[in-house]
């Protein structure tokens, strides 16, 4: 397992619970691991995300999620980051992440970026160089 730092034991349990619902093929893909890591670390984001992500099929209706009106700027930045980590279809700047996220959510975002790069399983998620 890549040295991923979950926020707490509950975060790790939520992550594992949803990860196990993914197909074996999707379970080892860093984009799926990253969005699950980010979404399961913030309960408000997870609630929004769960309306648009279907683990059993791997479908993520990100355009519909982005179209939903949100007043909380922190959740807005995190949902944009979700889509960025999933498929690169949005642009979130480093300054937006730094300025809009609390220290805990910044740690969560940085962890998700790490997961996207390296995955959580060293054998399955390792990038070929």
Q: What does this molecule look like?
A:
The protein is mostly helical and 129 residues long. The protein contains nine helices and two strands. It is globular, with a radius of gyration of 14 Å. The chain has one domain (9-119). The two termini are 19 Å apart.
Distance between the termini: 19 Å
Going by helix content, strand content and strand pairing, the class is mainly alpha
Q: Runs with pLDDT <50, length 5+?
A: 122-129
Strand arrangement in the largest pleated sheet: 1-2
Rg, Å, rounded: 14 Å
Major β-sheet annotation: 2 strands, antiparallel
Dominant shape: globular
Number of helices: 9
- Mean of the pLDDT scores? 90
Short description:
The protein is mostly helical. The protein has 9 helices and 2 strands, in the order H-H-H-H-E-E-H-H-H-H-H.
What characteristics describe this protein?
129 residues, mainly alpha, two-stranded antiparallel ribbon, 2 strands, 64% helix, disordered C terminus
Topology, pairings included?
Blueprint: H1 9-19, H2 24-27, H3 30-41, H4 43-50, E1 53-54, E2 59-60, H5 62-67, H6 73-87, H7 94-100, H8 103-118, H9 122-125
Antiparallel strand pairs: 1-2
């Amino acid at each position: 397992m890549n040295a991923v730092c979950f926020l707490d034991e509950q975060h790790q349990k939520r992550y594992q619970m949803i990860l196990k619902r993914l197909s074996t093929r999707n379970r080892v893909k860093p984009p799926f691991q990253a969005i699950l890591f980010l979404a399961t670390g913030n309960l408000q984001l997870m609630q929004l995300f769960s309306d648009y992500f279907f683990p059993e099929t791997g479908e993520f209706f990100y355009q519909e999620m982005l179209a939903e009106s949100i007043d909380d700027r922190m959740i807005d930045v995190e949902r944009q980051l979700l889509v960025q980590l999933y498929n690169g279809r949005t642009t979130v700047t480093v300054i937006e992440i730094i300025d809009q996220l609390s220290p805990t959510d910044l740690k969560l975002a940085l962890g998700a970026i790490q997961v996207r790069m390296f995955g959580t399983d060293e054998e399955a998620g390792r990038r070929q160089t």
